[in-house]
Amino acid sequence: MSFESDKRFNDFKHFPRGLRRSGEFTVAEADSLEKYGTAMLALYQGNLAPRDEVESAFIEQVKSGAAGANPHAKVWFKYLKVIGPKRVHRLCTVVGGASEESSGGGSFDVGGGGGSDESID
């Protein structure tokens, strides 16, 4: 049988309450990770040699980055995506900065008059 392991897989570092309670995985995905995750991790890290064609296909799919129709590879890619670094997109503007220095200007006159005492009536 593929992905045999004596231990159930738990990643308390990333999921302190467990895989099932994390909200990231479906019940079936959490079951698959708990049952086969230890073997998947060992294959992924290269600590375990593949024992059959299913495990060999898993390793090749993980190396290529395409899960295909393999449910084990799909679950493993989802696990890696969830534990990977979070991407944060921020919208911000730079006040001042290099554009002021290169233009030679510097100050913005809030008064708007520029020295004349004309007023608009």
Question: What does this protein structure show overall?
Answer:
It comes from Aeromonas enteropelogenes. Pfam families: DUF413. Helix content is 41%, strand content 0%. With 121 residues, it is mainly alpha-helical. It starts with 26 loop residues before the first helix and ends in an 18-residue tail after the last helix. The mean pLDDT is 82.
State the main characteristics.
4 helices; Macrodomain Ori protein; DUF413; elongated; 41% helix; mainly alpha; 121 residues
Number of helices: 4
Helix content: 40-55%
> What can be said about the biggest beta sheet?
none
Mean pLDDT: 82
Unreliable stretches, pLDDT < 50, 5 or more residues? Answer: none
Spatial separation of the terminal alpha carbons: 90 Å
Radius of gyration, taken over Cα atoms and rounded to an integer in Å: 28 Å
**Percent of residues in β-strands:** under 5%
Q: Overall 3D geometry?
A: elongated
How many DSSP-defined strands?
A: 0
| Helix-and-strand structural type | mainly alpha
Order of helices and strands: HHHH
How would you concisely characterize the structure shown here?
The chain is mainly alpha-helical and 121 residues long. It has helices spanning 27-45, 53-64, 71-83, 98-103.
